[in-house]
Amino acid sequence: MTATDGKVRPVQIPGRNFFLCDNLVDSAMVTQLGIAVKCLHYIRKEKSRPDVPALAAAADIEPSIVAADPFFQRTKAIAEKMFPGEVLGHLRAYVNSSVYGDSYASHRDSPETSQNVTVLYCANLIWQADWGGETIFYNDDEDAVLAVSPKPGRLVVARGAILHRANVPTRSCYEERLTMAYKLTSSGPE
Question: CATH top-level class for 7-186?
């Protein structure tokens, strides 16, 4: 899997590294993934935090699939490049599916002191700015500092401890917002 003209934009969210990556996934793989995630069986069970109801649909990806799949191998390699000297290991992979009317709460994917890494992949094949669906990232004062549009094929590689919240599509969007989350444990910097 190769991608040309890849662009990585490092962003500093106070005390935490964050990388916004475009064109690092081959266009054929983007298409293949965009089709595949539409066929998954989603269950409305996902909670942003333990204290909120399960208002989001998700489909888990089996660890055996993750271990053998070229996409996950590629995204793990990208994460390892963003966090050199760290040994990353599989924790969980799943796809979120949200539509207008769903709800997400702000949350962290790992405890504030954790070095774990989350790779978020935007799996839709098309997305328009008017459809919303941005992921909002916050500083430790819970002030929004960055909104990331779900551009097709986009990767976000960041510490799981960054406070964030997914926005659902707007009323004008008749597509599901599909994002793949690949959560990785980290040994921390060597």
Answer: mainly beta
